[in-house]
Amino acid sequence: MTMWKLRCGNVADGRDYGHVCISTGLALLGTDWLAEQLHGIGANPQGLDLEVLRNNEHDNQRHFVHRFDSMEPGDIVALVHGNSCRAIGLVQDIEPLAIAAAHAAQLLDIDGWCLPIARAVNWRVPPPPNAQNGGAQIMGLSTNRFSQVHVQGAVDLINNWHDEAFLDNGAWGHGQGWVQYQADAAVVVDPGVVPMCISARALYYRNEQPRSREHEIVTHLVVPFIQHLGWMAPQQIEIEAGFIDLVLYEDNNRQIPRVLIEAKKAWGSVTGSLPQVRYYYYNNLPEEQRHHVNAIATTTGTRWAVWTIDHEPKLRAYCDLASPAHFAEHPLLKALALPCYNVGGLSQVMELLGAPQGPGG
User: Fold this and answer.
1) Is 76:3 a contact under the CB 8 Å cutoff?
2) What is the pTM of this model?
3) Closest Cα to residue 341, out of 355, 327, 357, 323?
């Protein structure tokens, strides 16, 4: 029996998909190279040849994938975020490629992150108060995303947690079971979003990588979307506001900022620009204006991540306007619908970014 550590995100950039691992009964892994190769594959997830991609010699992080595949049934996995252990799990005897084939569409985009490598794990979560504080504390682990645990102190601690979790009906609770996707009703309630979804999908799933620059993304995708949500240009929409792409103001005099938006190229990272917009919030926005800001958003024009700030940014909603998941309830497009594991979804993005007077002005 081998002991492993899997990091479920990065504290510095706000990435945290531990809840997805626990709720789905999966351990999830991705590499930067895989993410680049898999952009756009969601148009045809059945065409995903993950066995070829996961062994590609051009992926300098493929050693993580090979190590991940080497886990044996019965191995112990500690699901870690920062210095917090979110869960302890036992690897299950299910073929990894079978899992990937069954859940390919969902794993390609989880809150903006591509995590196509999966193993089945029976997770146990720590009891309160540890669970409420984000998990039990553990020190001495390496900072890489996946590795074997060798530090004796960490080994002993994880072994103790394993006994508490799995022996004699231990105190650690079960994971929540498979997430059942609930169709996002925003398309039904607000038909005006449908053409934007179709346009975004046409851009995002083209056969070749889009060459759109950031200002084209802002012009053709971002501004039309926020105008649909009720923001009036030019009074309430400031473009290229210093070191950030857009600031949305409640008032026509641009004194009360409500939303900060940073846009990146269509195939860029939707979460990678969070440090830039966070820096703007704390260093460029006058202190007397900061308390007015309700949300900050990072976007590629098609994908939107919306954060609220309470000391530190917290991801509240994510959606991909190009995703077939948002077509689930539309009578003409429901055949394109696919499940997804995203927080908040389109309706929550629209609610958090909506102008004070509401969508449509």
Assistant:
1) yes
2) 0.70
3) 323
